[in-house]
Amino acid sequence: MADVATRTAGKAPAVHAPEPILDVSGVTLQYKTKEHLITATYRVGFKVFKSDRFVLLGPSGCGKSTLLKGVAGYLKPVEGQMRLKGQVIREPGPDRVMVFQEFDQLLPWKTVKQNITFALINGGKCANRREADEIAMQYIRKVKLERFEDTFPHMLSGGMKQRVAIARGMAMEPDILLMDEPFAALDALTRRQMQDELLQLWEDTKFTVLFVTHSIEEAVIVGSRILILSPHPGQVKAELNAHEYSHANIGSDGFAALQRRIHAMIFADRVLEDELAVPHG
Amino acid sequence: MASRSIAERSTLYIRPEFENTGLGVAAIGEVERPLSLIERISEIDPVRKFSVLVGIVVIWQLYTVIGNVPELMFPTFSSTAAALIDAFVNEGLLFNIWNSISILLIGYTIGIAIAAVLVVLGVTTRFGADLLTTLTAMLNPLPAIALLPMAMIWFGLNNQAIIFTLLHSIVWPVALNTHTGFQSVSETLRMVGRNYGLRGLPYICKVLIPAALPSILTGLRIGWAFAWRTLIAAELIFGGSVLGASGKNAGGLGWVIFQNQMDLRISYVFAGLFAVILVGLIIENGIFRNVEDRTVKRWGMQR
Questions:
Q1: What percent of chain A has pLDDT over 70?
Q2: pLDDT per position as a tens digit, B130-177
Q3: B252-B256-B259 Cα angle (round to 5)
Q4: How far apart are CA A161 and CA B13, in angstroms?
Q5: Chain B, nearest residue to A111 by Cα
Q6: For B90-111, what is each residue's pLDDT tens digit?
Q7: What is the DSSP string of A82-126?
């Protein structure tokens, strides 16, 4: 433990390093397709602290979604460890709630409110229905869907469905909220609005979130800290601060500079990859 | 680059821009108008379907009356209707219908239980899945009624033989559709269920079954339709031996049809066929349609 503490202190010149919520160290993740065993990430390590908006950013094939699934407990690392508040992650659990990219993550046979109470009751957060109803309504109001509490998901637009999913995740008050490209399937205007809303919600409750995206702009807007992964297999390339940037200063020099810096890092790999690909045919 | 953009510009036809201020409602004329009574009635689904039925009945009656078709070959609609009412009121047709349905319900319940066991095996183990898919692929195309001769030898001329053949027509479609339904539950929904700590039986009941409900309902529906046909056919073959009784109301609907044909009461044969259709329609529309409207259609899982 002491060794870990000094190393962190050496890396980040913080006043004092608090205990991380999530500690991923030397994690190698592999999964099988029908023909191949694929190494998605190789010895990846990072720490997420309380109230971090921690973004995993990288091109496709860098294993960022796989990494998130690992943290969620759907996948066991072949090497290394993932600890949530000191406890090794072994299986999925309601202390790490996942918000998916797909709209079908809502149970279609439950209304907006029932989707949230279902999570609260089965996740062991609430013992009785009345308590669950109350909490559900509180979060439905937070995402401004109080007019739709008794609507079934198929009547909602994509953006509204994602709002319900976010409300469901936040209502569980997990130690860490895991978001897997939650806005990727939305149109550009809705996406921007959802990013703003997410930041407002964060201002409200200062939840801890691990956010996966492949959009540099989204990473800089949403994230307070960005982990950049290089592809095939995913390895840590850099960890940058982005807490100063949001939609408010999207045109500023600092914003643009950070975006360019990240772009250069990711693009460097891309060029190399293309050059390597040529002689292969 | 520069030369291309000039070339592009020369091929473009630059037109003046414009903005519309919007026409007044008065200029458009009809924006919203209530439909006339006839237009509204023709929008009602049952009304349209019923009028098709009325048309068929009229053609039937005209053909048999004007064409002077002998009653023994093809009775008129009016005598068939009279026979149906007579059978219900004086001959206790309802008892025969109940006899058929009670056998069907026993077979249906046992069949669903067997299908459930097969599906649970198929979902949990690889061997179970192989067993289920092989068995259904092999036995699904075999008409249940073809098993009746063997069933008669194994069980004798009794209800058990009929229930055995019914099982065959229920188990495979129900198991096959339920299994397919479970397999097509999206990975995201599965992960959501596990995320909130659901495992084992609660996971199956609270996530897999509702998510697969469209397929499960289809299976139940096909199973019911197959079983109803098989039952009537089996009763026809057994004749009056069903239940070993000799009373008029001892057998099922199939037996009534068979018996009336023996007595050359052809309008009563037609009435029996009508009763078979009626029961089918009532269960199809009264039960299955209703359940669908309240579940999968309401949830937007099926149109």
A1: 90
A2: 999 999 989 988 988 899 889 989 988 888 889 999 999 999 999 999
A3: 130
A4: 44
A5: B299
A6: 888 888 888 889 999 999 999 9
A7: EEETTEEP-S--TTEEEE-SSGGGS-TTS-HHHHHHHHHHHTTS-
Measure Cα distances from B73 to A60, B58, B236, B300 in Å: 74, 18, 19, 49
Token code pair at residue B238: 């057994």
Nearest Cα of chain B lies from the Cα of A26 at a distance, in angstroms, of 24
Question: Cβ separation of A74 and B300 shorter than 8 Å?
Answer: no
Number of folded domains that form chain B: 2
Residue of A74, A105, A152 with shortest CB distance to B300: A152
What is the pLDDT at residue B110?
Answer: 96
For the stretch A151-192, pLDDT in tens is 999 998 888 898 899 889 888 888 899 999 888 888 888 888
Q: Which residues in chain A are contacts of B192 at CB distance < 8 A?
A: 98, 100, 105, 107
Judge whether A31 is closer than 8 Å to chain B, CB to CB: no
Q: Which residues of B touch A180 (CB under 8 A)?
A: none
User: A74–B194: do the CB atoms touch at under 8 Å?
Assistant: yes
Domain presence at residue B150? yes
Whether residue B50 lies inside any domain: the answer is yes
Domain range for B284 is 91-294
Q: Give the gap in angstroms from C-alpha B114 to the nearest C-alpha of chain A.
A: 27
Going by C-beta distance under 8 Å and a sequence separation of 6 or more, which residues neighbour residue A245? Answer: A220, A221, A252, A254, A255, A258
Contact B301 A104 (CB under 8 A): no
Read off the DSSP letter of residue B263: T
Q: Are residues B69 and B159 in the same domain?
A: no
How far does the CA of residue B291 sit from the closest CA of chain A (Å)? 13
pLDDT (0 to 100) of residue B7: 54
Answer yes or no: is B215 within a domain: yes
In a domain, B8, yes or no: no
Would you state the structure tokens that stand for residue A183, as one six-digit string? 């806005």
Residues B179 and B254 in one domain: yes
Domains and CATH numbers, chain A: 53-74+90-280 (3.40.50.300)
Nearest to B186 among A104, A153, A155 (CB): A104
Per CB-CB distance under 8 Å, the chain A contacts of B301 are 108-109, 154
Task: Give the closest-approach CA distance of A15 to chain B in angstroms.
Answer: 36
pTM of the model: 0.79
pLDDT in tens, B238-261: 754 545 555 666 788 888 898 888
pLDDT digits (tens, 9 = 90+) for B64-73: 999 888 888 8
Going from the C-alpha of B199 to that of each of A93, A104, A123, B211, the distances in angstroms are: 11, 20, 11, 16
Q: Average pLDDT for residues B230-238, to the nearest whole number?
A: 87
